[in-house]
Amino acid sequence: MQENYLANWIQALFDSLPPEDNKNGVLVLGAIKFNFVKKSAYPVSDFCCCSHSLQIIIKIASGNGVEKILVGQQASFNHLIFSMNFSTTNVKNFANGGFIMSASYNPGGPEYDWFNYSSGQPAPESITDKIYGNTLSISEIKIADIPDVDLSKTGVTKFGSFSVEVIDPVSDYLELLETVFDFQLIRSLISRPDFRFTFDAMHAVTGAMPNLFLLINLVQLWILGFNYAMYDSIANGIPLEDFGHGHPDPNLTYAKDLVNILYAENGPDFGAASDGDGNRNMILGRCFFVTPSDSVAVIAANAREAIPYFKDGVKGLARSMPTSGALMSPLVGNFLGILWMLGSYQFAGKRVLEQALTTFVRRMASAWLSIIAHRNKDKKAGEKLISVADVVKEHWATYGRNFFSRYDYEECESEGANKMVAYLRETASKSKTGDKYGSYVLQFADDFTYTDPVDGSVVSKQGVRFVFSDGSRIIYRLSGTGSAGATVRVYIEQFEPDASKHDLDAQVALKPLINLALSLSKLKDFTGREKPTVIT
Q1: Which residues, given as ranges, of the chain have pLDDT below 70?
Q2: Considering 40, 62, 104, 161, which one is annotated as catalytic?
Q3: Which of 32, 97, 231, 483 could be bridged to 277 by S-S, CB 3.0 to 4.6 A?
């Protein structure tokens, strides 16, 4: 990484913000697991947050006139807590924005940084474009000459008119959850001896607070002597620098341990896994995998009855275009942020294994537990419980099933992957309605472009789509969120209204479309890959 990379980028960001957001402003600062290192300025644990980078941001914020910085204790205002709790912190503290130090997304470099805006949503493109422009012409870094701040304990440190407040990032969030979910109803479910669940934190930052909603209930029930499986309910819960030699991506390949547990003969009734920063999740029932598109649809269909916060209805829905044909929006979180600010965006599936429950709560495990608890609230001891699979299959019977699969080809050579996408774009541009691909008749083909209905923002090149007359879809994308090389993602979806076919394995039901997707793209020729790294 170039010398002073972080400091230059942070200054470019401050130069991009409206003056009122700098002068006497309040910012929130935090980091995720990827920035943990063994050595820290403060001996709070073996794996503390990268203190040096945090101190740089604090000093530059002071140099740019920011009045106050809020930091989670040990910088634990990670993405899990940040995305859930930022809106609450903003309301209480009138924060203008906040930084998340991450290992994914832009900008590049070994220590990535996000800037989230005042209501917690990712910074809009109008800001990120300015940041990039300023990085090309930056001539000075305004950095205050102040000592490092001890982030290991709560309290306020003042330097003249500038202050840094180290806060407990958990308490506000838990207080908020009490207003969203029926804690007592979920306690009644997880205290039943005939209901068991496992949450897999994948040795990532979510392990420190592995879905706080689950943990707080577990602790309370354990103290009362109700939950017999507390220590078995949280798997891989200790954050490790190398993720326990694993890959913290919650899918059927990298969360195989959890899959094996849920698919065992007498496995738990409910399972969930979370990725490295709590940003993506996977939901499982006993011997049953819930696809992301099904998950957000089921939550939305049941929210009004099962989640008290939504008793008056759900205001809005959003889901990334490749994951399902409905609720199409870009994969870029910046554009979901427009609805987020307006309070219109409450359920979302961003990318394939992430759902978001907003305005205040954006994780799906708690929502799913609420649904299961609501469906079983009148079940007496000994009666068969309504399962995750029962809820999903009932949804299919009502609305039909969208068979869905995603093929990921990780760490491909960038040159070949880019050539493949260019070839697909050219093929799509030359295609016309009525073209036949085996038994499939083309409705249209394009490179997805999205125009935001609220502010008119436009995002292009979001995925090459081939959509057929029966509603079947094939979508191709290159992902920039991997750790090395290029990741080619192929999304395959087909609607099936016939209930007698709903129990088919997705790979069986989609086999003709999968074969078409691979041949149409000439994926093997361009990438040299015989098979995908991950199948979802």
Answers
A1: 1-2, 20-22, 24, 30-50, 74-125, 169-173, 204-232, 238-242, 248, 276-279, 316-320, 322-363, 453-455, 480-484
A2: 104
A3: 32
Tell the residue number behind the tokens 């309370």, with chain if given: 220
Rounded-to-integer distance, Cα 309 and Cα 362, Å: 13
3-state helix, strand, coil in the chain (%, to 5): 40, 20, 40
Please report the pLDDT score of residue 260 as a whole number.
Answer: 93
Last-in-domain residue among 364, 399, 434: 399
pLDDT digits (tens, 9 = 90+) for 215-242: 555 545 444 444 444 546 777 776 666 6
Indicate if 379 and 428 belong to the same structural domain: no
**Are 225 and 183 contained in the same domain?**
yes
Q: Are 112 and 84 in the same domain?
A: yes
Q: Where are the alpha helices (DSSP H) in 275-387?
A: 292-306, 333-342, 364-375
How many CA within 13 A on the CB side of residue 19? 0
205 and 291 in a single domain? The answer is yes
In terms of residue numbers, what domain contains 288?
Answer: 173-399
Sign of the dihedral defined by the CA atoms of residues 131, 132, 135, 137, in that order: negative
CA–CA dist 334, 419 (Å, integer)? 27
User: In degrees to the nearest 10, what's the CA dihedral of 479, 481, 483, 488?
Assistant: -10
Between the alpha carbon of residue 217 and those of residues 110, 183, 249, 305, 381, the distances in Å are: 36, 8, 25, 21, 20
Task: Decide which of 342, 366, 399 is a domain's last residue.
Answer: 399
Please tell me whether residue 272 adopts helix, strand or coil conformation.
strand
Number of domains in the chain: 3
**In what side-by-side order are the strands of the sheet with 473-479?**
436-437, 440-447, 464-468, 473-479, 486-496, 401-412, 534-535
Residue 51 among the catalytic residues: no
Q: Which CATH number characterizes residue 143's domain?
A: 3.40.120.10
pLDDT at site 210: 44
